[in-house]
Amino acid sequence: MLPTSLSSASTMIKAILIFNNHGKPRLSKFYEHYNEDTEQQIIRETFHLVSKRDENVCNFLEGGMLIGGSDYKLIYRHYATLYFVFCVDSSESELGILDLIQVFVETLDKCFENVCELDLIFHVDKVHNILAEMVMGGMVLETNMNEIIMQVDAQNKMEKSEAGIAGAPARAVSAVKNMNLPEMPRNINIGDISIKVPNLPSFK
Amino acid sequence: MSAISYTDPFPASLHNTGRPVRPQLHLPGLGKQQQTLHTLGTRVDERQSRGSVGTHLLLCRRPAGHKRYKSQANMALKIVKGSIDRMFDKNLQDLVRGIRNHKEEEAKYISTCIDEIKQELKQDNIAVKANAVCKLTYLQMLGYDVSWAAFNIVEVMSSSKFTYKRIGYLAASQCFHESTDVIMLTTNQIRKDLSSPNQYDTGVALTGLSCFVTPDLARDLANDIMTLYPESLRPAFPRLKEKLEDPDPGVQSAAVNVICELARRNPKNYLSLAPLFFKLMTSSTNNWVLIKIIKLFGALTPLEPRLGKKLIEPLTNLIHSVDFVVLGMPNHSASIQLCVQKLRILIEDSDQNCEPSVNACMKYLGLLAMSKILKTHPKSVQSHKDLILQCLDDKDESIRLRALDLLYGMVSKKNLMEIVKKLMLHVDKAEGTTYRDELLTKIIDICTRATTSTSPTSNGPSHNLVHQYPGGADPVRGHTARPSHRLSDAGRGHPGQSHPRICCRPDGHSLLDNAHTLLTGNVQRKGICEVLYAAAWICGNSQKAMLRPKVATLPGHIQAVYVQNAAKLFATVLKSGEGSADSTAAQEMMIERLPLFASCILQLVKYIQKLQQKDVEIAEEVIALFAGELNPVAPKAQKKVPVPEGLDLDAWINEPPSESESEDEQPRAIFSKEEPKYSRPRHTEVDEKELAKRREVRKQEQASNPFYIKSSPSSQKVYQEGPGVEHIPVVQIDLTVPLKYVKLEEERRQKDRADKKKKEKKKRKEKRGGGRGKKHDSGPESEEDITPAHMVDIVTEEMPENALPSDDDDKDPNDPHKALDIDLDNLVQKAVIRPLADSEKLPVRSHRAADVLKSPTEDVEAERTVVSQEPKKKSSKEKKEKKKDKDRKKSKEEKKKKKHKHEDKGEDLLGGQEDELVVQSEETSEVAAPPTSTTAECPLTPSDAGGEESVQNGTVEEEEEEEEPLPPMSNYCLLAENSYIKMMLEDADQVNDIQGNLQDGSQVVVSVIFENKCESFLKSMEFNVLDSLNSKLQRPEGSGAHDGLTVPFQLPPGQVSNEARFVFTMQSIVMPQKLKGTLTFIVKNEDSSTHEKLEFKLHFTCTSYLITTPCYSDAFAKLLESGDLKCSSRIDSCASMYSRSIQGHHVCLLVKTVSEPKNLYPLQILIFITYYCVFLLNLILSLPQSEQTVSIDAKCDEPTLLGNVLDEIKQTFSQC
Predict the structure, then answer these.
(1) What's the sign of the alpha-carbon dihedral A7, A13, A14, A15?
(2) What domains does chain A contain, in order, with CATH numbers?
(3) Taking the mean position of all CA atoms in its chain, how far away is CA B1093?
(4) What are the AP complex mu/sigma subunit domain coordinates in residue numbering (chain A) (predicted)?
(5) d(Cα B710, Cα B699) in Å, to the nearest integer?
(6) How far is A101 from B365, CA to CA, in rounded Å?
């Protein structure tokens, strides 16, 4: 087939993947289109490659065949239960990307206040929004954490103002849903006042 | 709503109903809720059911049955509903939680969730939809296909609220791609968002667009993005340059980023920016920018050696201050030395204070940097061999691979043995399949190379290697396939009966013997067999082993190699002592064993035996069978063999078997019944009339067809407004453009020629250098013996004779950067290489020039009537018709009314009745046109001789030009001809008249005229074209891909002709293509009939796909808007043209003659949005001439198409 477009034009970062120690995807961002099955396969293969590596070895990996081939590298970092993997081409500086991952994680930490895997699990949309401030179409846009956070905050504010009062009940409900109900006391006793907590439906 | 609290999240009224609503909330779907409502006796339609709580509130206040409240209630409901029902939807968090709680039956749970989401997407409420889309985005990450919701995603994207818009765009960026059909619906929405006053809307739209942009979107939105970044991204080179000095570091770094990306493939265009970058490098503190700049310099320094010297100081400073420098070393030995030393420290010392992984990273980067340096300065790296060898022991596979790569590049004659020995040691302890595999491959590679230069040394390693294999089944498994091929290459490296075989012999023997142990052990693994294949090649000995009965269990191709080599060996034995016991034994064995393989070699051996019995000396002749070097064949060799002329590999050697005989017969039978219809006398006359009629019908069709772009007088109005754009004269593209060539400056041409020669010589030299293997070197300080290994490979691979010298196939067609790799020099050179004929001014045949630029005029086709009997008359008539066509076009544009009228007159005189209609329509269009348009927008200088011609063309002539009267040109070109029939195609410039069909961009129509040349009746004509991947002949439904198309008429004898049209479907029109076809027909005489066949070739050129499209000056200006086209400058003669391809690509051409000698415009290519397909190409093609330059500025949104169109233009120029 003849090339009808420049569809495979260059992107510097081909994909950004976050998955946990068991290979469960927590975020996947492909800057080039693959179908869902291929995406899953890429994630699996990447996990396979990355997870068998020691903690003390370097953070660069060549030879993943699914994305890009020889010109591409995996640059990854392992934080607690999560792997952050960037698949980049040779135009990208290895240390630069490592630094970018660090900025990304620090930004997440600021935005979620002590980020943990659960935050990424439940708020993958927010993670995407933060990432969008840093990388666009495979190119690094911004590496200054303060600038990123400022923009993310500004957008969150806008979202809140749009929801207005109408958004309040939804937020409240979601706050309730997010409460860890089983840990709530059945009875609350303050002095001689005893409040019986009604049986709440499980939202889990 | 304030009633919501932790203990009681629901409004009191909800409890008042006493309904057990809450327990249902977590249930999927709305079925239960609806039930609840029905039990209350409230009729709520499905869409409102979600507002159940609201309904309850209202119900409490009114008595049931009061209808007048109902509509009010509904109104209120809708308002309240929006916020409340969201509480009960499962949001993303609920979905995630649900999935986590259903670990065992996740798929089932998700499928119910998807059903729910489908319901939610049916709602009117955008909030509900957005929530559903948000969940879909999550599911997409888990691998579920959500493309079915594409339309809903578009809906959410177009929400006015940022919250939802963002959700929509995120979903789109995750799952939209080029073949998503709704993507075109987003164009306007994205445009709106891009121009939104809210910067975040714009940001979100851009982020999304960057992920799912398609060529179409890019074309449509390019302007919007340009206006979005008037400051930083305007696709004008000077502007970009300015931005490098922007005070805002963000803008600065963006500009650096863009230029670096642009410069990756063709850095020399950016050399002029070096001083600027230099300044930036010394002043910038931003690491990102620094890294990018250093990388850029890495690409620039080879082009400009002085730059290297200048860079030393700042770079040294950097190296000293920073602990690392990331690659792209400028070309200077002093700084290189320093770098390598720094790198050594990096690799060697691990900082105790750092994490081990950080040290590992440094080590890796150090090695990576070294391998970059190695390519240019091998000597500096060589001295650190010890260190690199150490790294082979590293526990990190990435580092080991890097070190291996480095060692591989360091191999030279001197250290070959040492390195290979070291590597061999590592093979045993190598861990990890990838690494081991790589290690083996590298060793074999080195040895293969070595065989060609230093053969004796190479036997050692290959000896050892072979031992690696039979050592046991285990190590072989898994990674044999790749090495085995290399091994066989290595084997073939010592061909035939030459010396190294002796060394290999024992190994091969043992291997082949071992093969039987392997085989007997029931291990017939593919991999092992492959090894045997290789080994058999290497040793080609030990017939015994090779001819064992067990061998028959091996795969066929290995058996073949076995037999082949057995024969080879037999020949050697024969030579060593004919008639000796050895050879007779061998012979007997051959005869005994060979029947097993059913090979012709058996006959050979038997024959030898016979001859030997007659005491004929045969050994020499037998050995001659295997004489000649067997070199490894280059992988591209086959591709490079030019296909000999006249050979069509796709053509059938024998006629393809027809599907069934009866089918073949049937249509013929039907056809003969119809025969009377086509009686001769009626035929011609009816045709003429009918064609006229048809033409009229078509015109009406076209008029009513909204897609048909025609010259409508009404649209001309746009033309006059916009005072700022008059300087852009817009001329219809099919107007003839006489380009004048003044003779070239002799010296200049000679110089060019000399340059070219020099280059060729150089090339040859390089090749020869490569041929000798080691002479060629780039490093300034490298010695012969430490030539980087990369060079040697060229030698070993065999190329076929007369292989095409093209290097095209070196370029990976899938290379993502291909688009950036535009060789401007080549383009210009081509133009120069074929200089115009000197010593005289050749008038350009205006037809030609125009034809290249013009598109086939779709409405003209109707006028092409049956060819008349006298060829002369025909041609003049057609020429006249063509003129008229042009005129009509012109009149549409209302360029030269006066001239036009004059033309009309002439036409009236010449033209027959058929012209009447056309003329009338022209006149009406003129009347409708505003008179102001008469002012010529294009400067005109009517010339005297052949003035009519030039005037017609609506372009400028140079005064000094003398024009010859044009030779009468036929509009038809011959397609193919034999003694029976002639096939002709319209068009004067040998380009087939191909008519694009704008309604369906993939269809083109080819009109072919068939003319009977003999005195027989021609019937049953079948037109067939072999389809290519890209183009297909449209056949009626139900016919196979190879069936021919029946031509719907017959040709009675006597120069009778008729026209048939064939529709082709094209996948891509950006490349020219040739199709081969055949015409079969029956020649019927009174007494006999014969089958005849005629072959032809259809050539589809790119320019034929271009369609003249009226384009108004403001739109044109917009298209050209790039700040670089010098439309505004004083140009005494120019013409701009606009055309569209049938698939909607825009092509703009600005043809200029520059009368004063001035500096040629710098050749520039500006690529905008480099990583995607908006490809604005501003190419100034200047022909170097003494007085006058013809330059063509071209713009197109499809680079391939543009390239091909320009090629065709150039070709036309060179023909002139």
Answers:
(1) negative
(2) 13-153 (3.30.450.60)
(3) 37
(4) 12-158
(5) 10
(6) 17
- Maximum Cα interatomic distance, chain A, rounded to a whole number of Å: 83
Q: Which residues of chain A have pLDDT under 50?
A: 1-10, 200-204
Interface probe, candidates B57, B83, B213, chain A, greatest A C-beta count within 10 A: B83
Q: What ipTM was reported for this prediction?
A: 0.83
pTM value is 0.46
Residues with Cβ within 8 Å of B576's Cβ and at least 6 positions away in sequence, in order, are: B582, B583
Residue with the bigger pLDDT between B1147 and B1073: it is B1073
Alpha-carbon gap, residue B1097 to B1077, rounded angstroms:
6
Q: Report how far residue A44's alpha carbon sits from residue B871's, in angstroms, rounded to the nearest whole number.
A: 72
**Considering only CB atoms, which chain A residues are within 8 Å of B207?**
132, 136-137
Q: What DSSP string runs through B486-551? A: HHHHHHHHS-TT-THHHHHHHHHHHHHHHHHHHHHTT---HHHHHHHHHHHHHH---HHHHT-GGG
Contacts for B1140 with CB less than 8 Å, ≥ 6 apart: B1106, B1107, B1109, B1146, B1147
Predicted local confidence at residue B529, as pLDDT: 46
Spatial neighbors of B643 by CB under 8 A, at least 6 apart, are B649
Helix (H, G, I), strand (E, B) or coil at B669: helix
**Is pLDDT at B666 greater than 90 in this prediction?**
no
A18-22, B420-424, B1153-1157: segment of lowest average pLDDT: B1153-1157
Q: What gap in Å lies between CA B265 and CA B1046, rounded to an integer?
A: 51
Instruction: Give the percent of chain B with pLDDT over 70.
Output: 35
Residue B653's H or E segment, with its range, is: none
- Is residue B98 within 8 A of residue B90, CB to CB? The reply is yes
Q: CB–CB of B1068/A4 below 8 Å? A: yes
Between the CA of residue B1008 and those of B657, B735, B866, what are the distances in Å? 27, 24, 11
Range in B129-143, B379-393, B627-641, B926-940 with the lowest mean pLDDT: B926-940
Q: Using CB atoms, which residue from A33, A178, A201 is nearest to B93? A: A178
Q: Is A21 in the B-facing interface, judged by CB distances under 8 Å?
A: no
* Residue A109, pLDDT score: 92
Question: From the CB of residue B445, how many other CB atoms can be counted at a distance below 10 Å?
Answer: 18
Calpha distance B798→B492 (Å, rounded): 12
Q: What is the DSSP secondary structure assignment for residue B140, as one 8-state letter?
A: H
pLDDT at A107: 93
Residues of A in contact with B143 (CB under 8 A): 36-37, 39-40
Q: How many helices (H) and strands (E) in chain B?
A: 48, 16
Angstrom distance (rounded) from CA B1025 to CA B1030 = 13
Which chain B residues touch A58 with a CB distance below 8 Å? 357, 360-361, 363-364, 396, 398-399
Determine the pLDDT at residue B558. Answer: 63
pLDDT of residue A28: 92
What is the band of B208 on the pLDDT scale with cuts at 50, 70, 90? confident
DSSP 8-state code for residue A2: -
Mean pLDDT of B800-804: 52
pLDDT above 70 (res B290): yes
Residue B466 near residue B508, CB atoms below 8 Å:
yes
CA distance B504 to chain A (A): 34
Beta-strand relationship, B994-996 and B972-977: unpaired
Provide the mean pLDDT of chain B: 58
The pairing of beta strand B1133-1141 with beta strand B730-732: parallel
Q: Are residues A83 and A77 in contact, defined by beta-carbon separation less than 8 angstroms?
A: yes
**Separation of alpha carbons A197 and A4, rounded Å:** 66
Model pLDDT, residue B178: 82
For the ranges B80-89, B638-647, B651-660, the one whose mean pLDDT is highest: B638-647
DSSP reduced 3-state for B702 = helix
